[in-house]
Design brief:
By secondary structure, the chain is mostly helical. Helices cover about 75% and strands about 0% of the residues.
Length: about 260
């Protein structure tokens, strides 16, 4: 009985993920086909519904205090550290997102992943404003609620900080379901988890996630970063600089984690 109880406790991190993707499946198979929505707005509606269900099932009914659960975490009082962390998150994840997209382009992963090409074609077929709202804001809202506010904290409680950072990022990456997004999401997931651990406020990684997504959308839909395309003179030096900045900041947060209980 004790062993069964421990197993159930250790697996609590997976329950919100199951509910989230069950809702996703129901929306995609039963609801969206009846609605006149394109892929982008369908993603927005599905993320909103799945995030709301996860919130109601796993957060609104709980009173756990310090980690923000038991209340609408995105509307909790804003601390000074949250503001500082939010600015850092935007700049850091913005740099990391550009660097990772460059690395993926240099490795040619986009060309070998047919599933990614299908996703890219579907999601970049709408207008820019819809893409920013749906993929740049609504999807990060739902994903941060799931992967950082719930999965990360539950893994942390059962297995400790290091395992929570790595495992939550791995789950976040793998569940994107194609090699390009898995690699990209895993690396960014590590950074988002470090932000969550250091600031204990899901809005900090949320701002970083939004920044990375919006920059990726603008890069794909405009000529804003065309000077950083593969083959351009600045592609390699800028990528190296951005990777170095990302690594240095990551090192700072890792040391900060080690120096606190």
């Amino acid at each position: 009985m004790a062993q069964s109880t421990n197993t159930n406790r250790n697996m609590t991190f997976f329950y919100p993920v199951i509910v989230y993707f069950v809702v996703f499946a129901i929306m995609n198979q039963a609801v969206l086909p009846m609605l006149p929505l394109d892929a982008v707005m369908g993603q927005a509606l599905t993320s909103f519904v799945a995030g709301t269900v996860v919130y109601i099932c796993f957060i609104a009914t709980k009173k756990r205090g310090s980690d923000g659960t038991g209340r609408l975490v995105y509307l909790a009082p804003v601390k000074k550290s949250t503001c500082i962390g939010g600015v850092i998150a935007i700049l850091w994840l913005g740099c990391a997102g550009v660097a990772m997209n460059n690395v993926i382009a240099a490795m040619g992963l986009q060309q070998i992943s047919a599933s990614y090409q299908q996703v890219e074609q579907a999601f970049y077929s709408s207008n820019l404003l819809r893409e920013i709202i749906a993929l740049g804001v609504i999807t990060p809202l739902a994903e941060e609620l799931l992967y950082r506010q719930l999965v990360f904290y539950r893994l942390r409680e059962s297995y400790g900080r290091l395992t929570a950072v790595v495992a939550s990022a791995l789950i976040f990456g793998v569940l994107h379901m194609n090699i390009v997004q898995t690699v990209y999401a895993f690396v960014l997931g590590l950074l988002l988890a470090l932000l969550m651990e250091n600031y204990q406020d899901v809005r900090v990684p949320l701002l970083g996630h939004i920044a990375a997504n919006i920059i990726a959308i603008l890069r794909g839909e405009t000529e804003w970063l065309s000077w950083l395309a593969l083959g351009e003179p600045l592609f390699v030096p800028v990528t190296v600089i951005l990777l170095a900045v990302t690594a240095v900041i990551a090192g700072y947060y890792i040391r900060s984690c080690k120096n606190t209980k």
